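In the previous chapter we treated chains in isolation. Here, by contrast, the input contains three separate entities that must be folded as one system, with a combined length of 917 residues.
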Amino acid sequence: MNELSATSAPTAITPLGTESGVLECDAVTRWYGQVIGVNSVTCAVQPGVTGLLGLNGAGKSTLFKLMAGQLKPSKGRVLLMGQDLASNPGLYRWIGFCPEQDALYENMTGREMLVYLLQLHGFSFREARTRAAQALDRTHLTADADRPVGGYSKGMRQKIKLAQAMAHDPEVIFLDEPFNGMDPVSRSESMALIRELGDEGKCVLVSSHILHEVEQMTSTILLINNGRILAEGNVSDIRDLVERHPHRIAIECDDARKLAAYLIAAEDVLGVRVDGATRLVVESNHPRLFFGRLPGVALDGGVTVRGYTTEDDNLKSLFEYLVEDGS
Amino acid sequence: MESIIETRGLTQSYGPKTVLHGLDLQVPSGAVGLLGPNGAGKSTFLRSILGLLPVPEGACRVLGHDAHGEALAIRRQIGLVPESDCLIPGMNAVEMTTYAGELVGMGHADAKERAHQVLYYVGLGEARYRELEGYSQGMKQRLKLAQALVHDPDLLLLDEPTNGMDPPGREQMLELVREVSRDKGMNVILSTHLLPDVEQTCDHVIVLKEGRVVEERSVERQLIDAGRVYDLRGRGELDALADALRAAGHEVETIQDGLRVQIAPDQGSDAIFMVLRDLGERVQIRHFLEAGRTLQDSFVEAVS
Amino acid sequence: MPIYEQGYQRWNGELQERPLRWWPIVRQGVMQVLPQRKYLILLGLAWIQKIFAGVALYGRLKGGDLLEGVFGTTFDSGAPFFWATLNDSMIWVVIFTIMVGSDLVAADRRGKALQLYFSKPISRNDYVFGKLGVIATFLALTTWLPTLLVWLFAVAIQPTSAYFGEIWYVPFVMTVHSLLMISTAGLFMLAVSATAQRSVFIAVTWIVIFGYGFVPVIELVKAITNVEVWGLLNMAGNLEQVGAWWFGAEVDDGIHPALSLIALAGGLGGAYWWLRRKIEPVEVVL
């Protein structure tokens, strides 16, 4: 058995056009018979955590599998660190994959399973044991590590999948609905773990429908719709570009109409809707100006503001806007 | 507020393992979220409610019936949306929903009529004649809801109803549940690990751990100290903001994307605004809310 | 109201007071399968077999003397004839039990539909009875019903009190025996269907348990140990034994029919117990 130490990955990164990243797609297309799953997708994923989003049937799982090397593109190339994934099986050493389905070794204990998989990657037995213990520790599975996987709860099964995806210290980690079945505490811990992995410089791609959780892990998203990339990059930047939907800010104060009158005087406010005596909803396309101005306006106007929130400043609203406008 | 389910000293075991330890629980009417780590006894509790388990010790009353002796009467009034896929092969949506109604005791004609109505409600109107094998995950979830609602139950039990659905699908599903609960007065118990779903649909939350109730609270944010502690979230020079606030005598703590501010005792809530005004466009606070104990906080506390 | 509510509507109807809880299960099971061409053809064939029986009976009743003259033996037209007719249906019992019954419980277990059934006011016994009813419908249609019609035919063409005195008890015995046969074949099949998933495996296991597959083995064991009682393991054989006994036909001397009856009862009980065990755990939640 070869002994592989934790050396760094090959560093030749060939820039692709103007964007380059650890993981790149170059005009990738994949069809199933007549059905096109992914249609000429070109994108680049940088180190850190990226959320992969999309409707069911939009090509999300296909793109996910293509990038992880589980599927071969019908056309185009998937590049990992500059090298074509399809013709370099050695690259799988640097990929970690946490699938949605459950395909675990039921009779092995968690520890045994991890050690086995690590040995398959080429680590020595001792090295494998050390890494397994680390992975178990990071996923909070040490207490249950020596019980058979068949007896694990759903949450624990997810954790062991997570552990095997990161134990061999890959450069790129693919996580497909990684928290399915985990209770809120485990979810929170796992989200923190994923943020850590991203901070360590790894490329972590999380495919998930639970937008609330994706936005807790990252501000970078990759949104696919109808087989094509619809949006790529930082959530706030994307949000600011969606002008058709001005920001909506709901404000609770002691005199809604008075505050409304003051606010609508300036150009950064497109409209104000008064909702009862104490609540108003403001629409603005210039959030920077508006939020900067708001405290002053309230104080000068003698209105006490009890609280306010931007109603659609979340990934869920952004997703809605993008997909409804894009389809 | 009457309770729809009452258990007293309910103990359930599977062989040598005791899963519920003398559970004393009163589930209020309305929409209730059921939370808890894996193995906490949620599934056992739900099975007990459905009368699927004998009641060796303690008492369990559901909708006015005894779970021990009147299980069938209880199930006439309950609709279950199970977590796992459940399909009766060879049928389409209308047939399966009609069948579900007949199994509860509806006449064939009634069941068929009602099946169509309910399938439209859950959004399967156009797909209702298609074979179930071709259904997407979202459609399967909706169908499960339809078969649970066909007989217009008094209590709807849902187990991870948004499983596998994409964001618009999840939104629609939760909206459907909220409508029957808030607008039509159906009792709902939602068992899930997704706290945002609970926040969106439920009024009340029960947390189980190791077969006992460890927390019961309303879903609304519980304010830490009304009018005195605020959470500020936004972009810009947050460090400068923190410094300025501290300089003005307030206590400041960093939270994700922002700050938690405890206003100095001798000042009012406008104090924060005064600091913000001075900073102008250097800081854009997009959320300014009284700090509260979220469900996440309660859960973590209850379970550790 | 000019605009009608489009959201969820409450249902103002009434549930049936005392519904036959197992009936929808029977109906659904039968209607899912019956319209298929292959079943209709097989049903047709089963009936054609009985029509031949009717013709044979006619021949015996009307031209018995002639036939005896030609063939030199007496042809029976009494109770044993009906027993033979009913017993000849066993081929259809095998065919239909396998075709209809193999997937009955297996499909529900595969599709996790048990949790649907038992979240409704359906007891475990309702489920068993309903599923059994699906098999029973087909078996009754190909054994009990046509044989009963042949009996009616017989009474119609030979309305003599002597003849009637011979065969008056046939419908009762036939009904009891059919029930026994249907229950045995059906419960065994449901028990196997609740245990395995692949239809080939289910069919073979059922054939073995029901007796047909066991027969060579049992005969061998009987020959070696010289103990006839081993024959009690052959359920189909037991049914034959008991049937012949009730109908007053010739009984195989090896085992007393009463023992066969007890063996059948034991088999029924065992199958029921196994089936109940298999459907007891219902995966409602994880």
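The domain at 222-296 of chain B is CATH 3.30.70.980 (Alpha-Beta Plaits). Chain B touches chain C through 50 residues (CB under 8 Å). Compare these points with the single-chain example from earlier in the chapter.
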